[in-house]
């Protein structure tokens, strides 16, 4: 098995980090571009595997679209292929076939899509057979499972003969991702009316306007550098993260606020954001409903610095690349911490446990890029081994190259500590 051994820095921590660009923004821009017949000029598209897969599948004439482990690619393409009348088999990794899609399929069927499940109802793989637009222009959809279903429907809505009104029911999770979708749609000329109090979004039928669009760097990827800054033993540590903006479409820019009490000050510059240290608190409570992808980063950072962290809004973590709650519970133990459910209503706490750090801790990554990247900053204080480091390719392929600007990153055979 492949692994990397990460060794703490020996000198002052000063680095400029180029970052990857946002796969979320990229994948939306690509769907909208496809709906303009590929007439947009998209710049700084992400090198993330999820985006490269989207590009490949949009161009491919194959009957089978294998999205691998990319959630947005699966959900956005299912809606896109359905309304553009393309007969496709949608499939992915075994884990992708455990991630629910029934809520989106039901909505698409209401709008006129003919979709059948090939194995288990409500889950990929599925077969898109065709599209006969129905007169129905109103769809009720749950907002508490995945915002990706809502984004997928919104992006194709301007192409429907009667447009679309979405009525969101229940709690809404990951709302900034819905707002990102709407802002990108409006940028490309869509006519959208949103009433968050009534939880309705109306999209009029009108074609997108082809335009040029530059994708911002990835705030989810930036979060790991916030953790690196917070965990640096060198209190003069300074990092510059390139390509981030203070006014971002990405909800994960909330990392600026989350990391302030964990000891990181953010200063926006012409080219990005500069991270420096400030005094840290000993406790933090955060609701991750609208930024679920930050939960692992913050959990590991708090655990390492002995900050007692209360997490809420983490229900969706169980249906992502892995069950991220279970994965965190298993791996935090190895760094002397624990994640405990303190109430049946999904309130969790991260705190130091009785166990001691066993150097080097060997962290399993569960086919989840965020497990690898969330635990990598541990190396600011202790030697750590990360198994299957290639998982980062899903969202941030240059992550280890960027890490090597600060710490020693050595490929080894896991379990042997031998360079491989
Ligand atoms: O729309 C998007 O680009 C995403 C939405 C979020 O998913 P959920 O809406 O399922 O929480 C997030 O976790 C994912 O990484 C990207
Ligand atoms: C959950 C994620 O992605 P997706 O749902 O698009 O697979 C993620 O990148 O953390």
Write the layout of secondary structure elements.
Elements: E1 2-7, E2 14-17, H1 23-35, E3 41-43, H2 49-59, E4 64-66, H3 71-83, E5 88-91, H4 102-111, E6 113-117, E7 126-131, E8 138-142, H5 147-156, E9 164-169, H6 175-187, E10 192-195, E11 200-203, E12 212-214, H7 219-231, E13 238-242, H8 255-259, E14 264-268, E15 272-277, E16 283-287, H9 295-305, E17 308-312, H10 324-332, E18 337-343, E19 347-352, E20 361-363, H11 369-375, E21 384-387, H12 399-403, E22 408-413, E23 418-419
Parallel strand pairs: 2-13, 3-12, 4-5, 8-9, 16-17, 20-21
Antiparallel strand pairs: 1-21, 1-22, 5-7, 6-7, 9-11, 10-11, 13-15, 14-15, 17-19, 18-19, 22-23
Helix pairs in contact: 1-2, 1-3, 1-6, 2-3, 3-5, 4-5, 5-6, 7-9, 9-11
The structure holds shikimate-3-phosphate (S3P) and phosphoenolpyruvate (PEP).
Shikimate-3-phosphate is lined by residues 24, 72, 146-148, 151, 173-174, 177, 292-293, 316.
Report on this model:
The chain has 420 residues and is an alpha/beta fold. It folds into 2 domains: 2-20 and 218-419, Enolpyruvate transferase domain (UDP-n-acetylglucosamine1-carboxyvinyl-transferase, Chain, Alpha-beta prism); 23-214, UDP-n-acetylglucosamine1-carboxyvinyl-transferase, Chain. It is 29% helix and 25% strand. The protein has 12 helices and 23 strands. The strands form 6 sheets. Strands 20-21-1-22-23 form a 5-stranded mixed β-sheet. Strands 2-13-15-14 form a 4-stranded mixed β-sheet, covered by helices on one side. Strands 4-5-7-6 form a 4-stranded mixed β-sheet. Helix 9 (295-305) links the parallel strand 16 (283-287) and strand 17. Helix 2 (49-59) packs parallel to helix 3 (71-83), helix 4 (102-111) packs parallel to helix 5 (147-156) and helix 7 runs parallel beside helix 9 (295-305). It is globular, with a radius of gyration of 21 Å. The relative contact order is 0.15. Bound molecules: shikimate-3-phosphate and phosphoenolpyruvate. Shikimate-3-phosphate binds next to helix 5.
């Amino acid at each position: 098995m492949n692994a990397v051994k990460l060794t703490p820095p020996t000198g002052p921590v000063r680095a400029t980090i180029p970052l990857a660009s946002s796969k979320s923004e990229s994948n939306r821009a690509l769907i909208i571009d496809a709906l303009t017949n590929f007439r947009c000029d998209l710049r700084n598209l992400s090198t993330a595997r999820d985006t490269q897969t989207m590009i490949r599948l949009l161009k491919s004439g194959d009957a089978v679209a294998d999205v691998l482990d990319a959630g947005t690619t699966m959900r956005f393409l299912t809606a896109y292929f359905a309304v553009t009348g393309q007969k496709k088999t949608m499939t992915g990794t075994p884990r992708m076939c455990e991630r629910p899609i029934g809520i989106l399929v039901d909505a698409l069927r209401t709008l006129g899509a003919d979709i059948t499940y090939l194995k288990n109802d409500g889950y990929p793989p599925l077969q898109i057979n065709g599209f006969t637009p129905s007169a129905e222009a109103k769809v009720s959809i749950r907002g508490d499972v995945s915002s990706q279903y809502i984004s997928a429907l919104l992006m194709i809505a301007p192409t429907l003969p009667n447009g679309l009104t979405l009525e969101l029911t229940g709690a809404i999770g990951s709302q900034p991702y819905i707002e990102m979708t709407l802002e990108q749609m409006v940028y490309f000329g869509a006519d959208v009316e949103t009433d968050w109090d009534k939880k309705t979004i109306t999209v009029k039928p009108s074609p997108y306007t082809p335009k040029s669009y530059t994708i911002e760097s990835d705030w989810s990827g930036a979060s790991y550098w916030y953790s690196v800054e917070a965990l640096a033993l060198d209190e003069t540590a300074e990092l510059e993260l390139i390509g981030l903006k203070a006014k971002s479409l990405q909800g994960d820019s909330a990392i600026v606020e989350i990391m302030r009490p964990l000891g990181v000050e953010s200063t926006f510059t012409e080219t990005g954001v500069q991270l420096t240290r400030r005094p840290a608190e000993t406790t933090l409570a955060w609701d991750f409903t609208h930024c679920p992808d930050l939960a692992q980063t913050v959990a590991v950072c708090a655990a390492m610095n002995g900050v007692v962290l209360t997490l809420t809004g983490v229900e969706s973590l169980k249906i992502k690349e892995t069950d991220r709650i279970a994965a965190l519970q298993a791996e935090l133990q190895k760094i002397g911490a624990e994640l405990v459910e303190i109430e049946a209503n999904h309130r969790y706490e991260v705190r130091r446990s009785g166990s001691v750090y066993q150097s080097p801790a060997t962290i399993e990554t569960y086919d989840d890029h965020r497990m690898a990247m969330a635990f990598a900053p541990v190396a600011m204080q202790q030697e750590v081994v990360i198994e299957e480091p290639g998982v980062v390719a899903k969202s941030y392929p240059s992550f280890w190259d960027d890490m090597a600007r600060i710490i020693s990153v050595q490929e080894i055979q896991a379990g042997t500590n031998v360079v491989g």
